[in-house]
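Entry type: protein chain
Record version: 2
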Amino acid sequence: MLIRLAEPSEHRGIVKAAITGVQNHERAVVGDPVQPTEDAIESYLQYLMHRVVTKDGLILVAEIDGRIVGTLIGYTDEDDDYLVQAEFNRFAFISDLYVIPEMRRRGIAKKLITRFNELMRERGFPWVRIFVKSKNRGALESYLKYGFEEYETVLAVRL
């Protein structure tokens, strides 16, 4: 397996495929209020591409025999939480992580995260954050195994 940075010429296609996969998975696992993929894809694609360019981001791919089987999209970000240590407010953020269904449970996501963490550590970031939908128990359990800890929980109620 090869973990590599995506070439700029690949960015749009890779990001579109990854977020389509993520959106379809989250819609199946979470349901409402996740938008249907076709309603969300283009605007989110533009948003992510902008973040990658303007927020010192990167796109990693996992390849097996020349086939892309996993993708990680991440960038740097800042928060304004006055109640935490200043260094915690400047972090690397994993926006989207996707492994094609038939290749899951083979350590691909862990390798993508490990490489992202290495690259961001080299850039001077002491923290990496990732969000996960609460109903996506499989992803949550995986991230906890990879060393992430639950930090904050957002609750919602439909009115």
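Comment: The mean pLDDT is 90.
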